[in-house]
Queue: 3 jobs
Job 1
Amino acid sequence: MTFSPALEERFAKLLTSYPPRRLRSAIVPMLLYAQDEIGCVSPELIEEVARRCEVTPLQVDEVIGYYSMLHRKPLGKYHVQVCTNIACQALGAEELYDHASRTLRLGNREVTEDGLISLEEVECMGACSWAPAIQINYDFHHFVTPERFDRLMESLRDGSYGKKAS
Amino acid sequence: MRYNDPSPLEVRVISQRFDIPNSVSIDTYLANDGYVAIKKVLGLTPEAIIEELKTSALRGRGGAGFPTGMKWSFVPRNTGKPTYIICNSDESEPGTCKDRLLMENDPHQLIEGMLIAGWTIKSNKGYIFIRGEYRYLIDIVDRAIAEAYERGYLGKNILGSGWDFDVYTHTGAGAYECGEESALLESLEGKRGVPRLKPPFPAVVGAFQSPTILNNCETFSAVPVIFRNGGAWYSSLGTPKNGGTRLVCISGHVNKPGVYELPMGFPIMRIIDEVCGGVRNGKKLKAVIPGGSSAPVLRAEECDIPYDFDSLAKAKSMAGSGGIVVLDEDTDIVAVALRTIKFYAHESCGWCIPCREGTTWLKKLLTRFHEGGGVPSDIDLIGELSANMLGRTFCALGDAAAMPTGGFITKFRGEFEEYLRKSRATTPVAELASV
Amino acid sequence: MADLVNFTIDGRQLQAPAGTLLINAAKEAGIAIPSFCYYDGLSLQAACRMCLVEIEKTPKLQVACTMPVAEGMVVHTDSEQVRGARKGMLEFLLTNHPLDCPVCDKGGECELQDMVFRYGAAESRYLEAKLHVDEKQWSPVVFYDAPRCILCYRCVRICAEGLGVGALGIGNRGAAAEIVPNRGDHLECDECGACIDICPVGALTSGTYRYKTRPWEMEHIGTICTHCSNGCKTTMGVRNGSIIRCNNRDRSGVNGEFLCIKGRYAFDFNSNPERLTAPLVRNNGELKPVSWAIALATVAKKFSETKARNGRFGVIGSNHTTNEENYFLQKFARQVLKTSNIDHHRTGDMASLLDALHGKTGALATTADLYTTKAAIVIHADLAQEQPLLAFQLRANWRHHKAHIYAITPGPVREDNYGTGVRAEVGSEFDELEKLRERLAGEGELVILFGAAIKSDRIRQLVTFGDSLGISVKYVCLLDYSNSRGASDMGLLPDLMPGYSNVRDAGLEPGLNLDQMVTAADLDVLWVVGANPLARNTFASDRAFVVVQDLFLTETTRRADVVLPAASAYEKNGTVTNVCGDVQKLSRGPKTMGAKPDLEIFGLLAKELQAGLGPARPEAVFEEIRRSVRGYNLPFGVVETGGGAATAPLNGRVEFQAQPELIRSAGNTLFTSGTLGRYSTMLNSVLEAPGTLYHDPGLEPIIEKGSGQIEVLKHQK
Ligand SMILES: Cc1cc2nc3c(=O)[nH]c(=O)nc-3n(C[C@H](O)[C@H](O)[C@H](O)COP(=O)(O)O)c2cc1C
Ligand code: SF4
Ligand code: FES
């Protein structure tokens, strides 16, 4: 498999970050960074990571099943994650998630037909004091109201997301 | 960046640089007492370092509150094996969002703390385990690491000491259990984040089967301050057995939620009322979850206690990771209990029976109960199932699930009974439970 | 002996060596502590929490499976708290476990059933829906039913730790966690089924057994697998005269819990519809079924006629038949047919080894020795493929005793993964041995296992090398079929009598060997018992009368004039000798109508010929072997009760003509078994190509040149 030069550089660094004969340590970071680039953990990626980390594909497979951020099917270009854990729940996150689900017409871990947006109800993401919070890919958005949520979704659709302060 | 305004009641020790522009840069750090402590420490013996830490009464900020000096003293010397320094920045305990700020605003402070630990046990490698969701922090911390290399604070022959130390970031990928120290080490080794048998503890057999110092991000971040100003000074900020300050994360129904640095032993009610401006919308306080979701809930009237490890333990709860969730009178406790157990069922690694099956059963039961399908025996059953898990699981996640669940039932039994009165089920309806 | 510590369990004062796990110390004292995940010999998991006990002065219950006994420890295994905890665990387990016991294969043999019966939790407080996941088929022989799985990880461990294959892993997390195979939706492995056997519940089931019967409807008969020379004990489950399954139920025999795919599943040849069930006699060029009486009379007539006119006989014996049959056959040939033309397909040069070892005692390693020796070296053999039990033994020795294992082979072998692997072509193995000399000499004790490429003079050279190390060295001459060793020991050789004395000492002349018989143009009678020499050759003599005893119409059978349908090893009583000289007992399980054990056939023929060879009953012949064959004066009781008794081989020169060209490995792999294997539908259905090796790149061998130290990369959880 070929990856972007930046990712290859990251991989190269990873493979020297761990003690000798501990290449296996690089599995999780490699999978996550590669997933960010290619969209999901594909069977080829499993083989590739297994080869580079000198483990069996099964050993990579076991890891993938364990971590909730690794997924075998592509999610949306923008993966919208709504935390509904207790701190966010206290400030209406469950209602926010329902709102999201209803307006986006998406169930948990579903992707819009155009592949633009996917939705996920997630566990605490470390934004409790600024709840309710969501993450779009890796960007945090704090104090999200349904109205702000709609504006954010609009910006994903019209391409303005990330270009102006949200 | 801080996402909330500071409070005048704060004692800013480890968050002192948070508001300085470009606080992440090594120049800012150096201009504000940065890398002063390591220079001092390079002249100290391991014994002296550990003594100073013990004097500081610093206790682990990851959850268990174990005395840090003691933990470091358990690492065997001269085993011939390499040793490792591991920073736990997995920060996944619901209610907790402080390590994020420490890495986002002051990564060099963390690196310096790890350097001091490294020098103490003559380790040559450190890893910062950052949860996968904090992807942006990896870039921030990586940049800080690179700066530290450039200036000779990392790498070969640090400050002419002849000692080498490397630090790397390592990402998780979505698993609360990887915050448990031994599961973290498994994850670091490229495996499923399943906890290890203990003993041996990580101090003796840790990362890569070698002696290891493993601490929470906030714990390491407090270390440079201690060596700059002295253990006694640090200790005096808090209470005798709970030294220093801690970043308290207040969330829920208060006017000014946020992360605030407060001295150990600061009263909970003052946190709510004075630091956070009281309960929102003039509502009455109903309950407080005082140390992350694993901590058993306190009723409003039980909250008149100082915020430190020992006082909360006495109240049969815990200060845990420093996350305080404040719940007002309108809160549906059954819904909170359900959301809590959903979390643990989702995060149970599945290794041991009582946690894997217990959390799942409780989740299904509470789902049915919450949806109006409760039967009278459910309430006692919740308590009994929690009791059957408590103290019997492989790792503390099982306890972390059982303790709060049992707590909701004992503290708010009346609310559960209220639900039953509204229940439309006369016989249990298994179909109601979603899988 | 480690220091003893004193402790109390349930009021009984006990002692055990320091470090003993509480669960084992209790077991030793007859106190059962229940467990699912604890399994003797495999790594510790402490996952099932069934073994919780109360230890005084400890606040929480503790797991007995990882807790070593300590001085003064006071333990309660049956307090109310402990009973409550056990019941609680079982109740948890049953929440998602389908209660389909009435149809589950494991019903009646299920550890979960037994525990619930014993410790309670049968009444359910669980009102919620159970998780359901569909059953999956991972290979022709392995099925997995996730909801039944209790996640004790025994299967994962036996596969990775026991077999060194590592084909099973854990997928998903939490309640959705399940066992997953190494190739996404299927398994690529040894297909040994150890995972199925070790599963305490019915989560893993066997493709050949599932939904066929209830365990109590079968008769369980222990016998020895007929496929390779390792001689694993296997328990046949027999119902209505046919084998329903094989597993090593009682973990006895030389193999303990080990069985390979052949031992566990390849019994199905036995009921292959192509089995011969009636004698055949050639009539007008065609083989026609006849009665046994006619067939035997035809053979007897031919034999006496030929004898009467001093015609030439040739006898080819079997690597599969019992010691008693082999012994009786050679006696028949030599005493009744007055011929020395007798041989079998030799798969290793046992005679040369014995000769090279003359004057030494205890120089042949037993199967058990492979588990205890400090070091072993394998030369020119792929043990995992050809000698599965021996491979398992060496690996277990490495796991449990840190034994040092070496392998000198032309290609990669599984031993490379945990020992020292050296690549060498046949012919250059002695150069490599020389390089290892210092390290081997430092081991203090060594077992050398060598394949068919090492024969005659090279065996002598090997023993000379062994002698020069100055340490205790034992040898295993690797042979291929289930009773190859017995064929050799019982004198199915043209110049050697039973016990390896020369035929001349008995006043006979050496006869033709196997190849000579096949190529001889002037044989009058060729009698082939349980062998298929024509699979690779065509028979030279067209005038010869050919009598064949076999299970199937093989290449050789097709050329026969009379075919006598033989019983398989599973249908016989008797003994066999495995590659390491362990003698074990076969017990008759099923019966194929119309076929007879070879010994019975010999007896009937002897009777027809009024030969006076003595009773052709296995027990009687075994007694004669014990009395007369050197090395076979074995403790009767051990063999009789299903144990393996080591032959004590002779200790003197073996006078014979070395014929290295006759030593030919069968070339069997884990998935082939000579001619017999062709009739096992199951064996032919597995996906793995014969000879495929599963090389785990994570276990790359670390060969440290010249350091004198062996380092192994341990396979970690
Ligand atoms: C289920 C579970 C999750 C945990 N998660 C975290 C975590 O996210 N961050 C953390 O620092 N410690 C966490 N801990 C505590 C760690 O196991 C460990 O005690 C801590 O990192 C040690 O650091 P300290 O002594 O500095 O507190 C967790 C423990 C358990 C049982
Ligand atoms: S308590 Fe058991 S299942 Fe739960 S996280 Fe720990 S080991 Fe895993
Ligand atoms: S046997 Fe001890 S936990 Fe399973």
Job 2
Amino acid sequence: MSQQVVLITGARKGIGRALVEHYLALGHSVVGCSRKQSDLVNDRYTHYCLDVADEAVVQEMFSQIAAKSGRLDVLINNAGIASMNHVLLMSTAKAREIMETNFIGTFMMCREAARLMKKNRFGRIVNLASVATPLKLEGEAVYAASKAAVISFTQVAAKELASFGITVNAIGPTPTDTDLIRSVPQEKLDQLINLQAIKRAGTFGDVTNLIDFLIRPESEFITGQVIFLGGV
Amino acid sequence: MADRERIQEAVYRAVDELNKQLPKGVAVNKSPDAVLYGKTGKLESIDVVTLIMEVEDQIKAEFGTAITIADDRAMSRENSPFLTVGSLTDYVAELLN
């Protein structure tokens, strides 16, 4: 694969950071964003401090990507937040925040990215869903719903963007050792892993391997798909 | 008030961008009467989406203002702003002013 311009949201830590390092290692030009500054320094890496749900700053980032690179080949919508809570105790403010980051953020990034990708009639969008949706995890009602929205959005956007050479797929990682699941008790995680066909925790390598496959130019005939890791 | 001529030129630049992407033999004229959509229009609905997007981009580049052309207000009008290049230009002017 020749050098591409890859945008990764939620790039400061966890899966996002691993993806940034992976695509830099493959020689691509990587743009990352997160709410806080990244300590990663690389000539081919640009970081933006922003909230993915803030339209004005998201649009400004895309204007700068367009001015600097003139194109975008890959978007990986990784930014996401979770907050375990019983439905009876979940605040509206927190529920709204989860929907804003996980769904509205993904939607806006896709819209702006597709406008840029359309110019080259090539684009690969990968949205991060979650096993919380198919497994209907208790305590994750709002989070699972926000990721269900991401899945529906992915499937419809795939149809609307297909004629522009843009594919849109979603992947559903299993619990991976990141801050997102740090507050989930080990016992809960073990129960969750037990529901998978392959009973082990996910790794960053599992995620990068699947994304590598989806963004390959040869994967132009694969769109609107949702692939869950671990056999969920 | 945004200059009407500047708006028109921005819309025409968007038409140029659209024409580059249309199949051979299909093109939209840079004239207010040019039909975009409807019974006598030559464009597919996806082409109208492309044109609207290009107009939004050109207006942002020219005036530094982000506008959203295709919203409920535009869709619910008795006379669609998307019928001709002229009606689209009028609608953009209305949004800017």
Job 3
Amino acid sequence: MGVRHVRALILIFAIGSPISAHEIGTMRVDVVFHRDHTWTATVIGTRRFVPQAIDIRFDGVKVANDRLSGDIPPHAKTFTWRYSRAYSTYALSLRNEGQSAARQWIESDAASKTFVLSRAVVPPTRLETIRQYLALGFTHILPEGLDHILFVLGMFLLTARVRDVLAQVTAFTLAHSITLGLMMYGALSVSPRIVEPAIALSIAYIAIENVVTAQLKPWRVAIVFCFGLLHGLGFAGVLKELGLPRSQFLPALVSFNVGVEAGQLTVIAAAFVLFAYWWQSKNWYRRRFVVPASAAIGAVGLLWAVQRVAS
Amino acid sequence: MRYAWLLLISVNLFGHDFWIEPSTFHPAVGQTVMLGLRVGQDFIGDPVARSAQLIDAFTARDARREQPVNGFENRDPAGFVRIERDGVAVVAYRSKANFVELPPQKFAEYLKLEGLDWISDTRGHREHFFRYAKTLLRTGNTSSPPSHVRDFRYDIVPESDPWSAKPLRVRLLFEGKAARGVLVTAIHRDDPSLRVSARADAHGRATLKLPKGGVWLIKSVYMIEAPKDSGVDWESLWASVTFER
């Protein structure tokens, strides 16, 4: 008797015997609905399992299936299981990933009771995906992306002139979109051990340049573009951890990028409203605000660079 | 797919056969035989774990004595028995009542499938079913057929040597008396499409011409009206015997 058989028997003890005496077989079926919008079934305790005899239904609609796994259809709310080649009573366990299992006894070839799928396992609609990834992109900047916030503030502190800010933001956006896309499509791969310290150094560079000069030099936009490429690699690292739905890859990718953009523009708008609008025309603005703030940002950037290399 | 052909055989499954599958049908003296309980169709079944809730009696009887079949609760195989001497050991399993209620159409089809054509389904479709399963373990070269299992309300009793190549004569006994007209079917384990059926005569006797050697399941279902206070309409008695010739 293998470990799986023992587990099946423990289950039989654990969930008690059915109300009346039934011929309980050794078969046990575990179905799990995963957050990546797939389902898998594990069958143990039988050597005669015939996958073609499974009748899997989402919302009452039969799924063409002869395997013990598959995709959960969009909008699905309920699930039922039936196995027409079962002759004995067997234990069926149904579980949404991250939740406890619902267990029931199935009388031979009878259908299971309806199982309610959690929202987390059902594929979202395109609109829901767009909304979700917009939010993820935005929150990756505000409030979670302090390094990106400091970089954007660094760009903004040089000069609050709309044309200059626009030039930098456009270069930055274009660049991070390129590397984010290339990374997510697998065309490019760079280790976070290189990317993360480089992002910290980019923050330090931008801030230090603010201390050194008060004008938008021609190379500044080019450098911001290069740094944008770096930050795109960082965004991709985060997005890879979050995961992109296979069925809606492009809408999710674009939405995330737009969300990031919205986050950055919010930072700039907030900076403008909070201090630039009031003080940029003052003769002390650069000396007493831009230089100290840039120096602080530069110091933080250097500190992070050291920390990230060390870790 | 190895078992894809199973789908082509019968589609369902109104009442399921029940039988005993020993680890060997020809044990040596001193050998312990594992006894698996199976429920299924076409001699293809699910293992059934031992359950005190189900078992009314589970015994092994040889020429000298009868002993209980021991086993571990909720385990498959459901029991084991040690063979003590040459001859035939009959392992007999008798269940308690199980309840089932079938929809009218399924009930009618089930009656037809099991040859229970004398039953009127106007009475109702609720039933208690009982299992009377046995297996014949042969040690040595004995050729004497085993006798009726006393405690079986319904029994398939071989009257000729089950291990010879000659047609097998069986007698179907309901509460020790001839069960007339019932259907008895033999199914070969390695080729479940190989089935031999016969009707019992007025003396409850039937002859099965088993075309080849191997492991055979012989099964028959008998049905009677249930007692009035039982809460069901019918009692069905499922008899089976397995052996290897």
